[in-house]
Design brief:
The complex is a heterodimer of chains A (141) and B (182). Chain A is of the alpha+beta class and 141 residues long. Chain A has two helices and seven strands, in the order H-H-E-E-E-E-E-E-E. In chain A, the strands form two sheets. Chain A has a four-stranded antiparallel β-sheet with strand order 2-1-7-6, with no helix packed on it. Chain A has a three-stranded antiparallel β-sheet with strand order 3-4-5, with no helix packed on it. In chain A, a hairpin with a 4-residue loop joins strand 6 and strand 7. Chain B has one domain: Arp2/3 complex 21 kDa subunit ARPC3 (Orthogonal Bundle). Classes of the chains: A alpha+beta (141), B mainly alpha (182). Chains A and B meet through helix 2 of A and helix 1, helix 2, helix 5 and helix 6 of B.
Chain lengths: 141, 182
């Protein structure tokens, strides 16, 4: 009727956990606990380390998103010509612009707290975003 | 013939038991115990040991479906997660049981089942419902609870099987002398 008891030939097949856990059991349990504990330290940093990003929009099209953490110069083609966006030290600003008044270059910089730098004549928008900052984790029905 | 009937009766009993445990556990408020013990897997593991992989699969999937009817959750996200976790856990336990003879006792197999159940659920939840890497932060916590609940369930399963084999559910076969006396 029943399958043969595969475990009964263990010398330690009592119901006392101190005696009947095999070496395999103990190794597995220790491994799971150790991996769990290690991941507990490592995983949150690894997963949640994604910092704020800079969205670059030209003429209503999103040209790209760049992490604020990496220093770079981005040349953005606009209606009048090339706008140069600089990301440095965790902040983004418009470095140079082909527009007549250069107001955008005087707007300062924006950081992870959020903000926008706009060049209206060249139709270039630089805004910082946090990844998924809509405040919603998940939607379920 | 008789043997098959007796086997069917016992499997039915195991399925009923698994469903009741599954449903009863669903009544525990999540605010009190934020994780599931997975006590129903005691029966799944016992079935694997007593009758083999196919029957364990039927019992596990059966109790999840029946349990979902009890709460009206059939087809809901919770049900999808349950099925994914249960399916993967039974597969993993069956494979471990089949191919690592002598390495693990029920405790080891139960821990494998619990860990795989959690990983499968989290993966499916991430892929289908949450889509936010922050959900993965739960993984280490789930692994630690899996170690604990897997250990407990393995222990319970061993005791359960021991009694089920001998005394607890003695359905006499019609040819046994016991039955003639009755």
């Amino acid at each position: 009727m029943f399958r043969k008891n595969r475990f009964s030939d263990h010398p330690d097949s009592s119901t006392d956990p101190r005696r009947y856990m095999t070496i395999g059991d103990k190794t597995l349990l220790a491994a799971v606990v150790l991996i769990g504990a290690a991941l507990m330290v490592v995983l949150p940093r690894w997963v949640l380390s994604g910092g704020a990003e800079v969205d670059v929009v030209s003429e209503d099209r999103l040209l790209g998103s760049y992490p604020l953490a990496d220093e770079r110069l981005i040349e953005v083609p606009g209606r009048l010509g090339l706008t140069v966006v600089r990301i440095k030290g965790g902040r983004a600003c418009i470095e140079s612009s082909p527009c007549p008044h250069k107001t955008c270059t005087k707007m300062g910089d924006v950081g992870p707290e959020g903000g926008v730098v706009v060049c209206i004549p060249n139709e270039v928008v630089v805004r910082t975003t946090k990844p998924r900052d809509d405040g919603i984790d998940a939607v379920t029905r | 013939m008789t043997d098959q009937v007796v086997k069917l009766a016992r499997l039915a009993l195991l399925l009923a038991l698994a469903t009741v445990i599954h449903t009863a556990e669903g009544l525990i408020p999540i605010t009190v115990v934020w994780f599931r013990f997975g006590f129903a897997n005691i029966i799944g593991l016992a079935t694997l040991e007593l009758f083999g992989f196919k029957d364990a699969l039927v019992i596990t999937l059966g109790r999840i479906v029946l349990g979902s009817f009890a709460f009206g959750l059939f087809g809901s996200p919770a049900f999808v997660l349950s099925i994914a976790g249960g399916l993967c856990a039974v597969l993993a336990m069956g494979l471990t049981y089949r191919f690592t003879a002598g390495v693990f006792s029920e405790i080891g197999i139960s821990v494998v089942g619990a860990v795989v159940h959690n990983i499968a659920q989290l993966t499916v939840a991430y892929l289908l419902f949450i889509r936010n890497e922050a959900a993965l932060v739960l993984l280490p916590l789930m692994l630690l609870t899996a170690a604990g609940t897997g250990f407990l369930n393995g222990l319970a399963s061993r005791v359960f099987v021991k009694h089920f084999r001998t005394t607890a559910v003695n359905i006499p076969s019609s040819r046994s002398s016991e039955c003639k006396r009755a």
